[in-house]
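Tetratricopeptide repeat
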Amino acid sequence: MSKAVESLENGLRQARIVYHGKNRLPIADTLAHLGAALRSDGKFKESLAYFQDAKEVTDDIFGPDYVHPNTSAILSNLALVCQELGDLKQAKEYGTKSVDVDRKLSKTIDGCPSVAFRLHTLSEICHAIGEQDEAVKRLEEAKAILQAASSKHALLVMILSELMIRYYLMGSMDKLVTTAENFPENYIDRLMEILEMLTNDDGSLMLRFTNYRNFQQLPALILGK
C-alpha cells in the first residue's frame, strides 16, 4: 500500500466520524481521492469500488447525476477505470453521463481542456466498441470546443492527429484535408509526422508534402494535384 493511499484511508476513517449525520461531501471527496490514488497504482478493481462509493454518497446528497463538477469528475473517473477493466459498455455509459453533466454546467467554459479530454476518452471507448462514427463525432466535438476558445493546447493537436488518421482509414479525403488545415502552425512538425506516417502506409494513397510551406498548399499536396 502506498503512503498516499494509507494517508487517504486514515483521512476517510476520520471523515466518517466527523461528518456522520452531517454534510457528507468531504467523505465523497476523500473516497474519490482514494479511487484516483489506487487507479494511479494500477489497482483498478479497488479504485472502481471507491469511485462507486463516492458516486453513491454524491447521489445521496444531490440526487442522481446532479449537475455539479464533483459529479462530472466522479463519472469521468468511473469511465476511465471501467475502460481499464475492459467493461467498455459501462465505460461508455459513465463517459456519456460525464459529458452530459459538463454540458449543463453553467460555468463550463467551451474551451476547457477537461471537457475536451472527457470527450476524447469517450471517443476512445466508442472506437474500442467498434462504433467508429460515434468515435469520430466525439473527436469533432472536442475539436470544436477547443477551437472555440482559440486553444493551442496539446490536446487539440492530439485530437487533430487522431481525426486525420480516422478520416484516412475511412477514405474521407476532404475531411482529412480540412482537419490538416486546422493544425496550429507551431505544431507543424507533428503534422508532417502524421503525413509521413500515412505516406508509408499501404501505398493506396500517396501524400506528397516534400516542399510543404504553408497550409494553403496542403490540399494539392495530399491529392497530388
